[in-house]
Amino acid sequence: xxxxxxxxxxxxxxxxxxxxxxxxxxxxxxxxxxxxxxxxxxxxxxxxxxxxxxxxxxxxxxxxxxxxxxxxxxxxxxxxxxxxxxxxxxxxxxxxxxxxxxxxxxxxxxxxxxxxxxxxxxxxxxxxxxxxxxxxxxxxxxxxxxxxxxxxxxxxxxxxxxxxxxxxxxxxxxxxxxxxxxxxxxxxxxxxxxxxxxxxxxxxxxxxxxxxxxxxxxxxxxxxxxxxxxxxxxxxxxxxxxxxxxxxxxxxxxxxxxxxxxxxxxxxxxxxxxxxxxxxxxxxxxxxxxxxxxxxxxxxxxxxxxxxxxxxxxxxxx
Length: 318
Fold this sequence. Notes:
- By secondary structure, the protein is mainly α.
- The chain has 14 helices and no strands.
């Protein structure tokens, strides 16, 4: 069985390489390779960062919540991101340094999202049983609150400024900020190293709280650490390219179905590879076939939304 799973991972890895090479070299000629290749390489790096962050965080989030139809977006980080972007335009304008400079905008967004996460976890989640669900509920409530604030400010601001804010509502790989790729790669690398080292704890935690405690896992403490790790990865991904709502639920559940294993090191690797493949092929379709008539967010959310409805129907029958 393990050999079969390894074969599937090898196939997914090959498909990942093919999808990235297809995106990189399609339409390249002697006249344009000097201009296009460096920019496409930066996009591929962004594919890998985003896909890795979303794939890992979704699998782990579903494990700690024991629910396969939830994603980290339920915590409300997407709403916080949009609130920050709208707040900057509302008070400082589109010409402000915070809005013009991608690096400063990234850092401000990251600090706000992580700060919100820490406040919610350490005020609401006090280590008692079932407080994780109270934390998620708090995330939903605060997310709706900040979403309402964002909508109010978007209605009030100048229509031209609203167009700038509107661009932030959808994930985009068209103008990847090269200056922040190194810091995002470093954050992601350190997060993944820590995450993969603790995959064995996730294997046990998937059995439930009581069994985990009996097997010597400090359940509540470990959940806190994993939730902070999830928020770091989700915040990095969202601040880098914008929110992609349904990608995680799509790739995480497909990874569980095709790999059929309890080992999180294998499931997470599969979800990461599937996420990168989905982003690379999706962006290829957007740029080469649809010629930018839509965004990758629309394609992924359309497919992911259909799959989400399928999961709801399937879970309802169990």
